[in-house]
Amino acid sequence: MGSNRHSKRAIQKxxxxxxxxxxxxxxxxxxxxxxxxxxxxxxRLMKRLTPPCSCLSFDFVPDVFGxxxxxxxxxxxxxxxxxxxxxxxxxxxxxxxxxxxxxxxxDPESPTEERKEPKSAVETVATFEPAVLRVRASxxxxxxxxxxxxGSRLCIYDAAAALNTLGNPICAREPRADPLMLEQSLGxxxxxxxxxxxxxxxxxxxxxLAVGDARGQLHIVRYSATxxxxxxxxxxxxxxxxxxxxxDATHVLAATSAGEIKVLELHPDGSVHTALFIDVExxxxxxxDLTAVAWRQVDxxxxxxxxxxxxxxxxxxxxxxxxxxxxxxxxxxxxxYPATQNQEVVSIxxxxxxxxxxPTSAETDFLSQFAVCxxxxxxxAGPEAMGAVYIMDHTQTVDEELAEELRxxxxxxxxxxxSALGHPELSFKHEGQLSFKEVHWHARDNGLFAVTGQAGxxxxxxxxxxxxxxxxxx
Length: 474
Description:
Blueprint: H1 18-28, E1 43-49, E2 57-60, E3 72-80, E4 89-100, H2 103-106, E5 119-128, E6 132-137, E7 144-149, E8 153-158, H3 160-165, E9 180-185, E10 194-197, E11 207-212, E12 217-223, E13 228-235, E14 241-248, E15 251-256, E16 260-266, E17 272-279, E18 281-283, E19 286-287, E20 290-299, E21 302-309, E22 314-321, E23 327-335, H4 337-340, E24 343-350, E25 369-376, E26 388-393, H5 400-408, H6 414-421, E27 426-430, E28 436-441, E29 449-453, E30 456-462
Antiparallel strand pairs: 1-30, 2-3, 3-4, 4-5, 6-7, 7-8, 8-9, 10-11, 11-12, 12-13, 14-15, 15-16, 16-17, 18-19, 20-21, 21-22, 22-23, 24-25, 25-26, 26-27, 28-29, 29-30
């Protein structure tokens, strides 16, 4: 495991017993093939929604369903299916309402059979013959959905009509008569998986969407609530672009199968140039096959870039702009913990800033946690091999007093304690499905993340994310 050299400025302020709970959570969920219900003691909420067929890509939709509430969680999301051959695939919006905290956690005496299940509803936006590979919802224009489907095709929809049919108005506008706003071939024989809406409003009459393809091209689309226009494709990378993350309205991160991470600067004339290049190797001379990248803004001039790939290694850099058009990246740490579990990284997402914090605050105490979604490597796939979601904190340090306390107890085996303490970034682990594909935090429901896999979508609030002065999920 790599060193943790970051400054102490973003160390999380836990309640006195939270560090102990963090290690306990990691230890209790680190065992192999534990019965899923046995792990409920480390959850505040764990619910599963099973769509009619596999949905291996999803995204939360910003809407009134996501309003923070005291006792239940109302969730709206979009998902695309990968049905069996001969069965039509769908792009649909879902609502899950009255998602209550797990009864087992809130009241241990409450019988399991009395737990209330969420109410769910679904509305189809479109159907396809090919499978939906990746789907994203615009964070700027509610109701606009982008989907990448087999055959290297991009489809953009106005899902306002379907969303409003769910019974809780989301889009304060008239939906389009035809929901399909744009259908664009990206070219090439291989499918594309990288698509990202710019989360920052451009201040013009159109917003930005970026798509990366298997030939290393970046495609730019401008869209509004009523129309979408394909702008251009620019060759920017030597390998397949596997994931994208926007920094601001003119800079986007690209991670490739050739071990490249690039900060790409977009110019008004449609040209793109590389403002920063990070070369990532999984071993000397061997490029890392990257699959996921995420950006966390820390202040006006800097942020953290985190990336992972098929080698099961997660790397973090501090990236800083000098104000004169220049960028620099400093590596902070690297951990191969997923690799030690025979897993590869498929998705990464930073935990959003808690909605109960003043958005103008400069405090970074709650900016350092992120989720890493993994699946078993091909050579270790099988009926007993599970995917996992790891919640990590890149500023955690080992509490030697806590380590000694745990070793003096008879609650855990020494190898379990060493495993958890040997990777101080790990604070929580969620299992329960053979294959996970994507993880996303909910932007407004504090501490809630969802992960999709073969068995459905799991909605989770770990107990460990309750932080001093922040009631997560409330």
